């Protein structure tokens, strides 16, 4: 079911998938997070396959699953900022919590979405668990050259207003303020899944191992031989995510 989630930037495009068989009692809920748009596809196609993933997970795991587009991506309103994307994720989680058919909320993200999922789980103890697939430990690569990254954001289309950001320095500082690696330490004893490919040329596997170490090894860590950065399209990664959901004991 297509729906919208209200956030500070306006309305976020979203897709809600419910279990095929409604149990008559509340079921667990999962929020899915996409990553920063790839240059070859651009903002309009960001997260385009996530509604399909949400439908599949809802049917197979018997969970309620929400896939949404961060501001500036897909058909969601607004202009990209890292803190803005965090606000969007927080709004999506709260939206799921308001659903009377949802008993608790887990978060899963691919690439930068996985990093933001970690950041939110680190500050929100009511999130039941987090899955981070091909996630980075920080946003230092963006922060090291914020002017170049700002141009990249405009080029892929997550920023379409030439007057945005009104304060480029504040916009840039956000890139260093969020620390997924620090947040990882706060996730246990809640359920924590890390999945990474051995051939990830964007985020090296050493970063996944750093997340595991930060969580004092209280992590389900799965390494995919030969896999690159885009694990959303690797059936092994999707199968691991499904298995993790089924092991949550709910």
What descriptive keywords fit this protein?
250 residues, Rossmann fold, eight-stranded mixed β-sheet, 9 helices, 8 strands, 21% strand
The CATH superfamily is known as: Alpha/Beta hydrolase fold, catalytic domain
The SSE order reads EEEHEHEHEHHHHEHEH
Describe the biggest sheet? 8 strands, mixed
Q: Write down the domain tally.
A: 1
- In DSSP terms (H or I, runs of 4 or more residues), the helix count works out at 9
Distance between the termini: 24 Å
Name of the top-level CATH class: Alpha Beta
Structural shape = globular
Structural class: alpha/beta
Number of strands: 8
Order of strands, main sheet, comes to 1-2-4-3-5-6-7-8
3D architecture notes:
The protein has one domain (2-246): Alpha/Beta hydrolase fold, catalytic domain (Rossmann fold), CATH 3.40.50. Helix 2 (82-97) packs across helix 3 (112-123). A hairpin with a 2-residue loop joins strand 1 (2-7) and strand 2. It has helices at 50-61, 82-97, 112-123, 140-143, 146-156, 168-177, 180-184, 205-214, 235-246, and strands at residues 2-7, 10-17, 27-33, 64-68, 102-110, 129-133, 191-197, 220-224. It has 250 residues and is α/β, with parallel strands linked by helices. The protein is globular, with a radius of gyration of 17 Å.
Sum this structure up briefly.
With 250 residues, the protein is of the alpha/beta class. The chain contains nine helices and eight strands.
Summarize the topology.
Elements (H helix, E strand, L loop, with lengths): L1 E6 L2 E8 L9 E7 L16 H12 L2 E5 L13 H16 L4 E9 L1 H12 L5 E5 L6 H4 L2 H11 L11 H10 L2 H5 L6 E7 L7 H10 L5 E5 L10 H12 L4
Parallel strand pairs: 3-4, 3-5, 5-6, 6-7, 7-8
Antiparallel strand pairs: 1-2, 2-4
């Amino acid at each position: 079911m297509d729906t919208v989630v209200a956030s500070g930037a306006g309305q976020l495009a979203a897709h809600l998938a419910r279990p095929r068989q409604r149990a008559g009692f509340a079921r667990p809920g999962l929020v899915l997070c996409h990553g920063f748009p790839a240059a070859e596809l651009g903002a309009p196609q960001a997260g385009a396959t996530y509604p399909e993933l949400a439908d599949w997970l809802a049917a197979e795991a018997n969970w309620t699953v929400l896939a949404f587009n961060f501001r500036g991506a897909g058909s969601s309103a607004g202009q990209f900022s890292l803190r803005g994307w965090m606000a969007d994720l927080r709004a999506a989680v709260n939206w799921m919590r308001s659903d009377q058919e949802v008993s608790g909320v887990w978060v899963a993200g691919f690439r930068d979405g996985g990093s933001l999922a970690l950041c939110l789980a680190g500050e929100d103890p009511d999130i039941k668990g987090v899955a981070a697939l091909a996630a980075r430990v920080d946003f230092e690569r963006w922060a090291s050259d914020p002017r170049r990254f700002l141009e990249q954001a405009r080029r892929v289309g997550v920023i379409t207003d030439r007057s945005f950001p009104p304060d480029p320095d504040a916009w840039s500082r956000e890139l260093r303020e969020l620390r997924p690696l620090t947040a990882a330490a706060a996730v246990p004893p809640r359920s924590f899944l890390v999945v990474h490919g051995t051939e990830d040329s964007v985020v090296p596997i050493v970063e996944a191992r750093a997340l595991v170490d930060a969580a004092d090894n209280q992590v389900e860590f799965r390494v995919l031989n030969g896999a690159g950065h885009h694990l959303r399209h690797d059936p092994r990664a999707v199968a691991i995510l499904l298995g993790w959901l089924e092991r949550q004991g709910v």
